[in-house]
Write a sequence for this structure.
């Protein structure tokens, strides 16, 4: 399975290299970890990573997860006017800005993101077409990826 992270962050985070480096490392870890997960229903996972300061959070409405079995979407004004979505699950992952921004090291940031993402996957309401999707397998693969890379431990509250 491949993962795509669409990162939407406040300028406060983008100006501090610790926080933005942690987001890049988080994306890389997930990309490498999910490559080994093979499933029939989902080939790509598109996550909108949203971490914006409270004044800007009112501009972002969290959307319900969507599953595209095979659909061509038309994008007005885009370089590619049509995009084919095939076995793609999309979801919005909202990160607590206050909790994330107060962290001082890259390791703390990565652990915060990892634990938040695991909780996000636990609570995610999958679309009806994915009733037979191996949700537990995805969750366990993500946990194992973070544990293998010493981001979280098996004893963390997950």
């Amino acid at each position: 399975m491949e993962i795509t992270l669409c990162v939407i962050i406040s300028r406060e985070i983008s100006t501090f290299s610790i926080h933005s480096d942690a987001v890049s490392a988080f994306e890389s870890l997930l990309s490498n970890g999910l490559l080994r997960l093979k499933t029939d229903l989902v080939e790509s996972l598109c996550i909108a990573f949203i971490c914006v300061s409270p004044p800007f959070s009112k501009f972002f409405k969290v959307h319900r997860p969507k599953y595209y079995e095979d659909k061509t979407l038309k994008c007005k004004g885009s370089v590619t006017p049509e995009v084919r979505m095939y076995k793609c699950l999309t979801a919005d992952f909202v990160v607590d800005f206050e909790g994330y921004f107060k962290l001082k090291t890259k390791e703390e940031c990565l652990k915060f993101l990892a634990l938040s993402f695991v909780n996000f996957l636990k609570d995610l309401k999958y679309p009806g077409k994915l009733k037979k999707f191996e949700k537990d397998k995805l969750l366990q693969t993500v946990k194992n990826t973070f544990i293998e890379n010493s981001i979280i431990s098996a004893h963390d509250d997950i």
